[in-house]
Amino acid sequence: MAGGGVPPFMADGLIFLAATVVAVPLAKRLGLGSVVGYLAAGVVIGPFGFGFLASGEEMLPIAELGVVLLLFVIGLELDPAKLWRMKRDIFGLGTAQVLITGLTLCSLIMLMGYPMRMALVAGFGLALSSTAFALQILQERGQLSAAYGQRAFSILLLQDIAIVPLLAMVTLLTPFADAQAGPSIWIESLTILGAIAAVVIAGRYLASPLFTILARSHAREVMLAAALLVALGSAGLMHVVGLSMALGAFLAGVLLAESSFRHVLEADIEPFRSLLMGLFFAAIGMSLDFGLLMDHIGLVVLGVFGVMTVKGAFLWALSRATGSPNSDALRVAVTLPQGGEFAFVLFTAAVGNRILTYDVANVLNSIVILSMLLTPIACLLLDAVAERLRARGVENPMVETFEEATPTVLVIGFGRFGMTVAQILTAEGLEVRAIDNAPDRIAYARRLGFKVYYGDATRPDVLAAAGAGKAALIALCVENDRVMGQAVDVVREGFPQALIFCRATDRAHALELAKKGVDFQIRETFESSLVFGKEALYSLGIPADRVAEIEADVRQRDQERLAIQMREGFEAGLDRIHGITPRRRASDVAADPS
Fold first, then answer.
1. Distances (CA, A) of 340 to 16, 104, 142, 224, 336
2. Contacts for 383 with CB less than 8 Å, ≥ 6 apart
3. Residue range 228-264, pLDDT digits in tens
């Protein structure tokens, strides 16, 4: 049968993949980050570039799922207690930023001769920053958990919440708005509260038991399907009642942040999130109309400069006024000066309600897109200034970076051995994170008060989500030798900064781990056997100093035998064992479990 050519959706997908494969590595090589690469790819392949794809608008509904999944993953990293501790930044700093920046921009737009209704929508729309854009930059730099990263996230979260009253403002500003809309507002409010309650109840009481049942099946694809169901289901419900889909996904993530499955959920969703986020930024790049841009180039350039300057100045001033050091305030200012994706939503609604004309909305969209493109460059310039000052031996607190000082330990395998290790570490006040792949064991440990999460020790994405990239030491306490070997290789390749401490099941396993170059290994029965033998000697009346001498001798002989076995093989070094006579054959001790 004759072929009918490549299906349109497949051709579009191939063009998108080819463009990103070229543009993203090039942008990262130039130090601009992957976001700029996706935007540039969209500009090139879009209708106003080389015209390979007709429109980015058709891609946006699917691409926006990337923002949804991003907020779900961010929510997984913020448990309700931590979110409550951030309330001052969210509702204080965030609200002040939106109100002050929005009113200032509104005033400037009115001074340019535009009517107040148009100025209000444009000013508050441009006051919003890009959650997707800023969080992507913070994640790529590994600074989302830094002090300034947390403050920036608080502002972004408030802005996501603010889109709801801003959309209501558009409705109220609409010419000939229905004055009898009062009762419907109450109905809508009750519907929204009901939807939020449904998400809270499902996330709090239904999701974790569901994941526990699915984890026992050890079917990774089913866990992935359940994770997507929770994230997208919550987002869809919020969208139905008129709230932001991203806000719904974030709420679901927060409710699962204390679940033992948070790390595996984050690792499973990450590939989908990354690809869809790339599609989202490419779709935005495709919508940049160069013809319109050139027709209004003066206004657009003035708008970009004005928005980034005003927002940056207020972000810096408000951050300083609420307690941030100068370095953190500057970094917040250069991370959030761009326009945001919710501005597109607001401007589209304003066009539909005859507040903005189509041309004005496109000019505003161009300002948002260009401000996104310039943000990574501003971050890069700040880093260059800091690096140049450090090279000259100047530690300038204005651009000093923040680093977390508390070392963390990741314990993998939380049976009896791992639990005892965790007790010793936490007794010193160290931060200990633990993962295991047995749901029943996790449930038992959590009943005792330990925070243990579900995860596979051989998956680098799960280890990264669990914090292996920041761990000073990784303690491998798993019972399976094969899994232990794979985990050592994964840790050595993906997280070389961490010390590797291992539990060995027997002597042969200890030798295998030593050959892999782990930093420390111990046979699980060796120390207990020594204590057992010492107590037997005490009970038989042997003096304490002689017992200590015997223990030291046995330890030394054991280390010497291990060194000989590393050089000559497992059956070598038998003469270092007390009680072995020359007449005994090597095969008699070949299965030595010590």
1. 23, 17, 21, 29, 9
2. none
3. 888 888 888 887 876 667 777 888 887 777 777 777 7
Q: Read off the tokens for 16.
A: 């998108």
The residue type at 215:
A
User: What is the identity of the amino acid at 64?
Assistant: E
| Burial degree of 325 (CB within 10 A; 0-12, 13-18, 19+) | middle
pTM above 0.70, yes or no: no
Query: Which amino acid type is present at position 291?
Result: G
Structural domains in the chain, CATH included, are: 9-174+187-391 (1.20.1530.20), 408-589 (3.40.50.720)
> Can you tell me the distance from the alpha carbon of 228 to that of 271, in angstroms, rounded to the nearest whole number?
12
3-class DSSP assignment, residue 504 = strand
Strands across the sheet containing 520-523: 452-454, 431-436, 408-412, 471-476, 499-504, 520-523
Helix, strand, or coil (residue 474): strand
Residue whose C-alpha is closest to residue 231's, from 190, 258, 202, 260:
202
Mean pLDDT for the stretch of residues 423-429: 79
Per the rule left: phi > 0, alpha: psi between -120 and 50, beta: everything else, 176 is: left
Instruction: Judge residue 330's burial from the number of C-beta atoms within 10 Å of its C-beta, 0-12 exposed, 13-18 middle, 19 or more buried.
Output: buried
> What is the C-alpha to C-alpha distance for residues 133 and 335, in angstroms, rounded to an integer?
9
